[in-house]
Design brief:
Two copies of one chain form a homodimer.
Chain A (H helix, E strand, L loop, with lengths): L6 E5 L4 H12 L6 E6 L7 E4 L2 E4 L1 E2 L10 E4 L3 H13 L3 E4 L28 E3 L3 H17 L1 E9 L7 H15 L31 H13 L7 E5 L9 E9 L5 H9 L4 E3 L11 H4 L5 E8 L6 E8 L3 H17 L4
Parallel strand pairs in A: 1-2, 1-6, 2-5, 6-7, 7-8, 9-10, 12-13
Antiparallel strand pairs in A: 3-4, 9-11, 11-14, 13-14
Helix pairs in contact in A: 1-8, 3-5, 3-8
């Protein structure tokens, strides 16, 4: 390491993902020269504790990015659209959690440990994939390297924390209201989420899929450099879980798959933890994954729908691998590869 | 109708599905000569109300089936294994909700309105398919008639009521315990079901799929007379919902599919209700389906994973179409076709 340590900014520091970013910056002991915390005008002026020190949250303005080398941003698409180009023009590497730039050809879309080399092509903005895509990439990359993915069908079981603080509180309020037999009028969701599942996340596209579902198709292709011949479809469903996205995944491969070999492969994949022993009812659930870093894989079995295929169940903390953890890991790679 | 009205028995009348059978016998105004209610020794002697009249629950014994023409049974596999052959030998048509006889070659496996003609082949026992299979059959039969099913991948979101009264109470207790931040030791489920999802229903088979998952494969093939070339796989997941199973379904067909045509087709299919208008956020959820008879279909879209395929989301009251409603409908067909 020859380069001076970076000045870091965390944008959206007071949100659900922002708080998680602070935790992980601490856990991973990320080294920096200086750090500051940016938020909307509303949250500016409030105090925030990081590594035992108190910081005043600063309002996000163009000037706030002066002298910042790396910004970890999770403040929503509108804020990113406004400030990412400004930050980049000032020489700051803007690592963005929103969907604003993900499919931009000039913006690398990166899962640390999967396609780190794409980071070298950045022009100031780096995008973090959507949570439902992110957790799949580590196991899928390992399987693709060995068996070559041809087709994938994903059904998700997504936690409410993916929709922010208001949605988390709504699950609690709605549940309590239901338990005493009172009616409840949802507002964070279109339908009641308590004791229910909702087959819509994000808005609908013209082809009938939701944006969330198309993100799995398009972001997976971009991250793993798949061409259009690799067919991917998804059904994204919200479930009454606080933290932890789950995915039922069916993959067809070009090559024959041996399930025991595939299991060993994933056991040796960084960031993946295999929990898969039917004799002891061992498989991942979101409650067990919450607060943890690995992507958990279980229920691995040779597909009976595809001649060369595999079915598995993939669970991860959506606020970590799906957002904050990967953002911090990208920052660490940018520092390590001296790309700031 | 020339035949005398049947003497009916309801076996397992005090269970979750049994109670629902009573409701639907009343709603559908099923005609009979006499009716009686059978249960285990433990429940025998208790009183039960049906159509405003009080009945004493009778202990299930071989003699209890004397003079019974049609028995609607939902008392679990062991009870069915014991009493179905006895009942049949006494000339009773035993309509069974358990999985005990479903794959028996001599036993028709029937969804009323889908394969009624199979009823004619009965030898005293008729099986009701598993709940996760049942709700799919009405829409799938219509789609298969038109487009010919080639491959199907199903991910389920199954309500706890499918696991009985104890599981229903456990969801409530576990949820309340979680809301006050106390630990909970599950017993009806292997893992906590509150604010969680569990990717296991029923026991594991040698191929890594669960019995519940293999039921979808095998029962669908039997009901729709598919040969082994039709490939079907399923991932069955328990979710914290009281009533209403949901299924994310991806189907590949032999023939080209037009999604608008397919939607019209299902709109005109008896027992199916299409709730599918993305412009008004109209799609089915289990909470809306609970207590109702139709199989609801929404989120219909041309597959982007298969050249000739369709994705959709299918929701139904698992205690009704998945169990009690189909049992009663089979009884009605047996009466109508004079097969008792």
């Amino acid at each position: 390491m020859t380069k001076a340590l970076p000045n870091i900014a965390v944008l959206g520091a007071t949100g659900v993902v922002g708080r998680e970013i602070l935790k992980i910056l601490d856990e991973n002991n990320v080294q920096y020269n200086s750090i500051k915390f940016l938020a909307s005008k509303r949250s500016a002026g409030s105090t925030l504790e990081f590594k035992g020190q108190k910081y005043t949250v600063i309002e996000t303005t163009p000037e706030a990015f002066d002298d910042v080398n790396i910004c970890l941003a999770s403040a929503g698409g509108e804020t990113s659209k406004k400030y990412a180009p400004i930050a980049a023009s000032k020489g700051c590497v803007f690592i963005d959690n929103s969907s604003a730039f993900r499919m931009d050809e000039d913006v690398p879309l990166v899962i640390a440990g999967v396609n780190d080399e794409d980071l070298r092509k950045h022009h100031g903005i780096i995008a973090n994939p959507n949570c439902s895509t992110s957790q799949l990439m580590l196991p899928l990359k390992a399987l693709d390297d060995k068996y070559k993915v041809k087709r994938m069908i994903v059904s998700t079981y997504q936690a409410v924390s993916g929709a922010g603080l208001k949605a988390i509180n709504e699950l609690t309020d709605n549940t309590k209201t239901n338990l005493v037999g009172m009616p409840y009028e949802p507002s964070a969701f279109k339908y009641e989420i308590a004791f229910n599942v909702i087959p819509q996340i994000d808005v609908f596209c013209e082809n009938g899929y939701t944006k969330e579902e198309m993100k799995v198709t398009n972001e997976t292709r971009k991250i793993l450099h798949f061409d259009e011949n690799v067919k991917i479809s998804c059904t994204a469903v919200r479930v009454p879980v606080y933290i932890g996205h789950s995915e039922a995944v069916s993959v067809e491969f070009e090559n024959d798959v041996d399930v025991n070999e595939a299991r060993e492969l994933l056991k040796n994949t960084d960031g993946v933890e295999v929990r898969d022993d039917v004799s002891t009812y061992t498989y991942p659930t979101p409650k067990d994954a919450a607060g943890k870093n690995p992507v958990y894989v279980g229920r691995m079995r040779k597909s009976i729908a595809f001649d060369k295929g595999l079915d598995f169940f993939c669970v991860a903390d959506n606020l970590r691998i799906g957002a904050a953890l990967n953002t911090v890991r990208i920052a660490q790679k940018v520092i390590e590869m001296e790309l700031y």
